[in-house]
Structure formats: structure tokens, C-alpha cells
Recover the amino acids of this structure.
């Protein structure tokens, strides 16, 4: 059973370009979470999605950032007009659909974004 | 609002010595608590979690943590450190809204 997959693992962008980060959840998981880890910081929650729905985006910056989780295909975190401050590691996590208890979130290896 | 404080951004222990990583939390409701480990350039791996069952939680790789409500603590311990334990450790808290709040992490160094 493959784990959470993220690609690319490393992404370099120049200021003003767009960054697209992809996350394929574990098989059978329908909940996806995105977190951002700045240097020397812990992970900070950005957004929680289920298939075709954004459940909680309270951690998303109000501008330039968007996320989707379509019916088919991976979840996408899109950052438009990147700036140097967007340089970070972006982690995706997934969990199964049944939420009887706090289900474990399984993390992907992350995408390390560097903005030049 | 929930929060997590990890005391010590870096901890060094000798191989074979006790590992103690400290975590205090703040939560207005009974929390779920987690410890994750992150090896260099990798994602997070769950070590253990507390979900209001037994207060002493055993995890993988010989780690365990004890939930102490009176102290609002969830410290991580391992009796005997191994070189392979060198990594960054994150304590985290969640209530029931699916959002995990992470501490800033403690980097564990193992001295030979």
C-alpha cells in the first residue's frame, strides 16, 4: 500500500512565477490536509479538503494561495506570483473517511519550494 | 485556542542514556496529543498518539509518552538512546476539528 505521494519533491521558482504542488493521498483516504513548514519552525496547518470540497481553509493566506481536491486526480496546492517568503517545505497528509475517533494523519515526504 | 510548547529546540544525550523531550499543551477541551518524528528531508512519521484512553502511551521504536492532565504535559521518553534516534521531534495537539497544531520541534542529537 503506497503511502502519501507528493511531487515534485523539490521545486525552484523565480519571483512572480506560479508553483503547483501535487499530493496523492493513500489508497482509500478521502481527506487531505496541507501544512507549511518554514525554516526552524513547526508545521502550520493551511487547509483541509475532502473530495471536491474545502472543509477548513483558515490557515491559508488570503491571496495567491488556493487548493483543490477534484473528484479524480491528486490534490493541488497552487501558489500564484510566488515571493521569497513562500520558500518552505509543504507537506500533505491524508486520513481515511471514517472519523469515529481522531484518525491518524499520514504525511507525505513534502515538497521543498525555493523561490529565487 | 490550542497551543503546544516544546522546551528546548536542541537536546543532546549520550548513546544509551535516557531520552526526555518535553511538551506542554494548552487546550480548552480534552485534547488528542501526538508525537511525530522527522528525519532529514523526509515527511513526518507518527510515533504515538493519546486519545483519552490509557494515560501512558507506547509508540514505535521504544518511545512512550505520559499524559498528565494536572501538568498539561505530554513528555516523550525512551530508556536508552540509539544513534538512529537522531532526528527532529514534534509534539502536536488536536481537538475534534481535524486541525493539528504543531510545536516548533526539538532536534535530538545522540552523542557517541
Amino acid at each position: 500500500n503506497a503511502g502519501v505521494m507528493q511531487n515534485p519533491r523539490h521545486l525552484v521558482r523565480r519571483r512572480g512565477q506560479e508553483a503547483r504542488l501535487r499530493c496523492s493521498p493513500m489508497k482509500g483516504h478521502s481527506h487531505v490536509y496541507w501544512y507549511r513548514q518554514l525554516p526552524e519552525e513547526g508545521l502550520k496547518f493551511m487547509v483541509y479538503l475532502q473530495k471536491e470540497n474545502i472543509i477548513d481553509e483558515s490557515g491559508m493566506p488570503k491571496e495567491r494561495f488556493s487548493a483543490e481536491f477534484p473528484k479524480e486526480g491528486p490534490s493541488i496546492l497552487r501558489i500564484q506570483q510566488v515571493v521569497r517568503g513562500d520558500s518552505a517545505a509543504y507537506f500533505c497528509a491524508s486520513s481515511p473517511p471514517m472519523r469515529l475517533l481522531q484518525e491518524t494523519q499520514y504525511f507525505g515526504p513534502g515538497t521543498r519550494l525555493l523561490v529565487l | 485556542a490550542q497551543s503546544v510548547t516544546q522546551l528546548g529546540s536542541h537536546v543532546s544525550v549520550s548513546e544509551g542514556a535516557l531520552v526526555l523531550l518535553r511538551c506542554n499543551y494548552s487546550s480548552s477541551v480534552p485534547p488528542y496529543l501526538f508525537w511525530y518524528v522527522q528525519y532529514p528531508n523526509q515527511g513526518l512519521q507518527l510515533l504515538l498518539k493519546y486519545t483519552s484512553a490509557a494515560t501512558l502511551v507506547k509508540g514505535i521504536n521504544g518511545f512512550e509518552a505520559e499524559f498528565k492532565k494536572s501538568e498539561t504535559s505530554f513528555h516523550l521518553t525512551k530508556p536508552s538512546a540509539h544513534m538512529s534516534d537522531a532526528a527532529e521531534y514534534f509534539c502536536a495537539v488536536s481537538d475534534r476539528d481535524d486541525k493539528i497544531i504543531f510545536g516548533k520541534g526539538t532536534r535530538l542529537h545522540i552523542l557517541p
Summary: DSSP finds no helices and eleven strands in chain A.
